Amino acid sequence: MSSERPTGFYLGRIFDPAKNEVSEKPLIYDPADLTTHAVITGMTGSGKTGLCISLLEEAALQGIPAIIIDPKGDLTNLVLHFPELRPEDFEPWLDPESARRSGKSLSELAAETAQMWREGLAKWGLGPEQLRALQEAVDYTIYTPGSSAGVPVNILTSFAAPNVPWEENREILREKISSTVTALLGLVGLDNIDPLRSREHILISNIIETAWSQGYALDLTELIMQTQSPPFDRLGAFALDNFFPPKERAELAMLLNNFLASPSFQTWLEGDPLDVAAFLYTPEGKPRHSIFYLAHLNDNERMFFVTLLFTAIEAWMRNQRGTSGLRAIVYFDEILGYLPPVANPPSRPVMLRMLKQARAFGVGLLLATQNPVDLDYKGLSNAGTWAIGRLQTQRDKDRLLDGLETITGALDRGQMDRMISSLGKRVFFLHNVHSKGPTLFQTRWALNFLAGPLTRSQIPALNRLAKRQGQPVTPPVESTISAQTPPQPPSQSPIKSEKSAAFSSTRPAVPAGIDEFFLPGNLDLQQAMTMAGLSPAREVTTRGILYIPALLAQAEIRYLARKYNLEFSRKLTALVDREPSGLIPWEKFAWRNLEPGSLHSHPLPQSFFAPLPAWLSNVRLLKDLEKDFVDWVFRNGTIYLRANEALKVYASPAVTEEDFRKQCEQAAQATIRAEKAKLEETYQRKIDALKERIERQKAEVKRKEDEFSQRRIEELGAGGELLMSLFGGRKRSVSSSLTKRRLTAQAKAAWEQEKKDLEALEKQLAALEQDYQKTLSTLQERWTKIITEETQVPLPPQRSNVFVELFGVVWCPYFLITIEDQEQKVPAFSL
C-alpha cells in the first residue's frame, strides 16, 4: 500500500467468495458511517478482536478519540505498537509457556514473532511509518477502576450535579439517576431491583433528584447520611416514616456505609475523576484513547462502573453541539449481559438511549460480542453497520439472521445464511446501511502486536510503555484547628527577586479545568512602598508589573435558622502563596473576602509573569484541595448568635453589641408596655371597686351623721319637755328621756364606726395605689436587668449550604522595582 493513505478507515481487502481468495481491492470504511453505530460479532478465533483493534487504530491515525471498555484484557494490546519491530520489544509480552511448548527459548520466539509481524504488515502495505504515526497520533492510558494497577478512577463525580439545566433535562436526568441507583444497589448486593417497586431505589433516587434539581453536589458520604435523614418528609401520598420507617432506613444506610468503609472500596475514590472530556483529550488538546480494563472486577462491580461510565458519557454528550461527523468512539468489547433482549440491567436503558440519540452529537457506539443470541436486536435496530464473522452454532446464526431480518425489513435469508456459513478466519460479512449491498472482506494485519488478554499485573508496564504512570491520591486528613486563628495573609514586605530574566512576558497557560483570576492592583507605587516599609524618597527604577500565582479559595456559607427567624451568610477566604508540604492549614492563609466581580479576567498590559509551579498545574491535586477546603469551611463554619432568651431576640455576628442592645431595649419596651397595660387593668379594676365602696361608705357616714344629729335633737327636745313638766306640774316619764339619750348614743356610735370604716377604706386605697406604683417600678427594674442578659447560641452550617464561589489560580500583581541595583517585588495590592 502506498504511503499516501486513503480517506477513511482501511480495514482490509474485499474477499471474493467465488474464487475463495482475497482481492487487491481495499475495503475503506467511512468514519461518518460509525455515527449510526456498529455491531461486530463472531466466535472465538474469528478475528473479531483483530478487526476491532484495526478499526481503533484507524480512528487513532485520524485523530478520533475513543473510550474503550475492555472486560477481558484484549484491548490492552492497543499500546503494543513497536515501530522498530525489534525482537526485544516483543519479548516481554510473549507467553513463556508457549515458548516452552514449542521447544524454543523466549528470545527465539521473540525473533520469530518480530519477523512474522514485519512480514504480515508488509503484505498489507503497512510498516514502520504507520507504526510511528500511530505511536504519536493519540495519548493512550489504561484505567483500572477499583484498582491501583493502572490509573484508578474516582467515581465520586458520578453523584455530582450534572452541568445541565434541570428543568430542561428532567426526563433524561431522571433516567440517569435511575440507572445510577440501580447500579449502586446492585454493587452492594441488592440485585433484580425494580425502580417502581423497590423502596430503596425510590428513596435514594429522590435524594439524588432533590440535590440535583437544586444544583447541589452529592457525595457518597452525604448520600448515606441523607438516607437516614432525607431532605423531605413525604414520598408520594405517604409520610416518609410510613413509607420507609427510620429503623429500616438506618439498615440501608448501614449497608451502604459498610461498602464505603471497606478498604477495598477506597481505590474507587482515588485517581482521575470520571471526566469524559479528559478521557477524550489531554489538557494540551491531544486526542486520547482511554482503555478501561475491567477483567479484575466481579460482575456487580463491572455493571456498576459500566453504567456510571455510560451515564457520564451521555451527560457529556448532551453538552456538545450537534455534528454530522464522528466526534468520538465508544467501544465495548463484550456486551453480553449489558444489553439483553429480556432482562433490564442498569446499563440497558442508558445504552438504548445512546443508540437512539448519540448520532446527533457525533458519538459512535462500537459494540462487539461473540454471543449474538443474547443481543436485544430491537435495541440494536439503530446500528447501521454489522460486521459478522464465523459463528459457533447454528442457533447463533439463526438468531442473528432473525435480528437482521427485523432490522432490515427485507433480507435474502438463504443467501446470507450461505455467505455467513462459508466465512473463514478473519473474513467478515459487512452489512452497512450506507452502502449498496453486503460485502465480504478479510481484515488487515493489525499494527499493534496481538498478545492476547493481558493480566492486571502487566498493566503498570503497559502504562509505562504508553508513557503514563498511575499516581495514587492521598485522602484528605481532618483538620482540627479553629477557624478563629488570626489571619496570616501574604507578606506585604518587599521580596528580593530573582533576575527578571526568570520572568516571562508571556502568561503561563493554566491547565483546562482550573479557574484563573487576576487580583486588581489598587495601590500606586508610593503607597505600595510605604506599606512595604520602604522610603518613597529613595531612587527607584520600575520594571513594570509582575504577576505571581497563588491559590485563591473562597466559599460562602448560608445559614437559615427558622427557630431564630434568621437568614445570614458568611464567607471564608484563603490565599495560599506558597507550595504546601502536605494538606494546607487553611486558617494560616485566611484572607479578606472578595467580591467575585472585583476580580479581573485579564492581566494589565505589558506585564511579566512568574512561572506557574507544578502544584498549581496539577488538576487532580487542586480538585483534592478544593474538597479539603470545603471540608475545612464546613468544620469551621459554626457561628455564634447573640441571644437574649428571655426577650426571644437573636442576632447574627454581623450585628454589633450596641445594635443588639438596642434591639433588646425595643423588645423589652414592647414587653413592658404589654405587661404594664395588663397590670394597670388589674389594679385599676381593684382601685375602681375600692373607690366605689368609699363613695358608698361616705354616703353611709353622712346618713349615720344625719341620724345622729336627729337623735340629738330628739334627745334635747325630750329633755326640755321633762324640765317643763317638772316646773309646770305636768307628769312626764323620765324613762322616755333616758330612751332618747340611749338612742342618741347609739346613733353616735354607729356614725363613728362608719367613719372608721371609711378611713380604713381610704387607707386601703392609698396602700393599693402605692403597691401599684411599687409593682410598676419592680417591673421596670426587672426588664431593665433582662436587657443586659446576653448569651451565645452556636449555629453550625449544613454541608449542602456551603458554596464555593472562587477556587483556582489567582495572579497577584507586584511592582517589579530596582533599588540600589537590587531587584525587589513589592505588592501592588492591599490586604
From TrEMBL:
* UniProt-listed InterPro entries: HerA_central, P-loop_NTPase, T4SS_component
Entry superkingdom: Bacteria
Q: Which UniProt keywords apply?
A: Coiled coil
Q: Where is this region: Disordered?
A: 466-502
Query: Domain Helicase HerA central spans what residues?
Result: 32-77
Entry annotated with the keyword Coiled coil:
yes
What Pfam families is this protein classified in? DUF87
Regions annotated as coiled coil: 680-714, 744-778
Q: What is this protein called?
A: DUF87 domain-containing protein
Lineage of origin: Bacteria, Bacillati, Chloroflexota, Anaerolineae, Anaerolineales
